[in-house]
Amino acid sequence: MAETIETDYVIVGAGSAGCVMAARLSEDPGTQVVLLEAGPKDSNPWIHIPLGYGKTIDDKRVNWCYETEPDLNGRRFFWPRGKVLGGSSSINGLVYIRGQAEDFDHWRQLGNAGWSFDDVLPYFRKSEDKIGGGDDLHGTGGPLAVSEVDRYDPISQAFVKSCVDLGFPRTNDFNGRVQEGAGYYHLTTRNGRRCSTAVGYLRPAMKRPNLRVVTEALSERILLEGKRATGVTYRQAGATHTVRARREVIVCGGALNSPQLLMLSGIGPGAHLAERGIAVAHDLAGVGQSMQDHFQSRIVLKCRFPITVNDIMMSKFKMAMTGLDYLFRRKGPLTIAAAQAGLFARTRPELATPDVQFATVIFSADRPAEGLHKFSGFSVVVYQLRPESRGELKLKSADPNDAPAMYPNYLATETDRRTIVDGLKLGRRILATPDMQHFITGEYIPGDDVRTDDDYLAYARQYGGTVFHPTSTCKMGADPMAVVDTELRVHGMGGLRVVDASIMPAVVSGNTNAATIMIAEKAADMIRRAPVAA
After folding, report:
1. How far is residue 373's CA from residue 32's CA, in Å, rounded to a whole number?
2. In a domain, 534, yes or no
3. Is the pTM of this model over 0.90?
4. What distance in Å separates the CA atoms of residue 503 and residue 412, rounded to the nearest whole number?
5. Domain CATH for 16
6. What is the three-class DSSP state of 235?
7. Secondary element (H or E) of residue 124
């Protein structure tokens, strides 16, 4: 039977941002909040085991498992996105990187007052429970656990030493004053378990009587009265239900689902909506445009010693011992993130800040969803931090059940192409050092045939891919392609905001989850300080 719910705020999407919004807005006991999530509760045990991302990366029960439209060499790229409480924070690689201070200052320079690094730092600190203590850059007591690597595998140690030997600075904090250097990543874990936004923010908030969380609820469209959002319809168990919002509709579907829902609701590029048979309620050209993503290319090595995750997965005995170690001590390989150590570097000396990021991954695979290689192997991944290429997202149809069509448009500019080539060449320089060669018996890919710049670029086109950081499809700003203002209100609409990675004016220089959480913290603060409309 169809149900109609009355509330103050309806939040669409219980992902990295949505869980934050629900937790913070429901702190006011006089405010009613409804949170809609298309996926299930986060009860899958692999979500909470750090290395479990290897199990959830292609699990359609908790993952949208999207694929792009054909792009480089006609290839479709696999884009996993969380479809579960916690969203992508429940299935990601657990690396906590904010981005460079200069990223947020750039946002401000684009005309987004209130979004410089000094403006957003308090919200990063507010979100954090930095294990080991805070300082002027890091917070303690927040909902999100931020820990340090406590298991320095020998390959990652050799990588850091090799970078330092080549002249790169050693850093203890990629989220410090300066990002540049080699070191170990911060992780969103606590006591050997993942700390998603569902765990850190939402679970405590769900005890409040003024917060209602509805799972398995696919939002179909935003209800509009003229130029004002008044609610959301969603599909659950074969029936269509309605949530009426007295104050605001807050869209937190992420860089793919937020623009999709806006367009399904008639908010977006008018000509495209008309092509899909959708009545245009608000012609807003930038919805789905300005898409950015970090493009990566890998160097995969064969390891001299049986010390990689590949080796564990090839041995029933090692798998059993690893499981017991985790069960009784919350230690061992099951606690590792997607990357342990890394390097932020400049491929050209004239650059002011790093333009590439490296990550050591102590396993290897052709595609993670297809299983690990049947040899002892590890990978060094490099990606460009500030891509110039811009893609777009469109609707395939007016059916909410149809995945959106994503066109990443990777490597569309000369800068992007040059940077990935230079990054691969730098990666090989690091791997040629004695400390790294100690672990290497051979290069699986690219292989000896890849030597010239043209070879590197051809290799990247054929074997490179995403590091799962799509952003900017509902970007913040005042230019003709902007979708939201500095308060994250949709231009030309009332009672409607977008709060997630889609609003980034430019993708941050690094992993995107930490910045997405910051965006939600800041948005919740702005909403709670705003006067209530009569």
Report:
1. 50
2. no
3. yes
4. 22
5. 3.50.50.60
6. strand
7. helix 117-127
Are residues 403 and 64 in contact, defined by beta-carbon separation less than 8 angstroms?
yes
Q: Which residues of 448-462 are buried (b: 16+ CB within 10 A; e: fewer)?
A: eebeeeeebbebbbe
Residue 373 DSSP one-character state = -
Residue among 402, 393, 408, 453 nearest 428 (CA) = 453
Structure tokens, 24: 């913070």
Tokens of 399: 């059916």
3-state secondary structure of 170: strand
Task: Report yes or no on 183 lying in a domain.
Answer: yes
Q: Helices in 330-447 by DSSP H: which ranges?
A: 414-431, 434-437
Q: Which helix (H) or strand (E) holds 228?
A: strand 228-236
In tens, the pLDDT along 482-528 reads: 999 999 999 999 999 999 999 999 999 999 999 999 999 999 999 99
- Per-residue pLDDT tens digits for 64-121: 999 999 999 999 999 999 999 999 999 999 999 999 999 999 999 999 999 999 999 9
Order of strands, sheet of 128-130, starting from the edge strand that comes earlier in the sequence: 95-96, 186-187, 144-148, 128-130
Q: How many folded domains does the chain comprise?
A: 1
Q: How far apart are CA 195 and CA 65, in angstroms?
A: 22
Quote the CA–CA distance of 133 and 247 in Å, as a whole number: 38
Range of 407's domain?
4-529
Residue with tokens 């029960």: 61
Q: What is the DSSP annotation of 246-312?
A: EEEEEE--HHHHHHHHHHHTTEE-HHHHHHTT---SEE-TTTT-SBB--EEEEEEEEESSS-SHHHH
Catalytic (active-site) positions:
469
Quick check: 20 and 520 in contact, CB under 8 A? yes
- 402 falls within a domain: yes
Rg for the chain, CA atoms, rounded: 22
Phi, psi dihedrals of residue 283, rounded to the nearest 5°: -75, 105
- Residue 232 located in a structural domain: yes
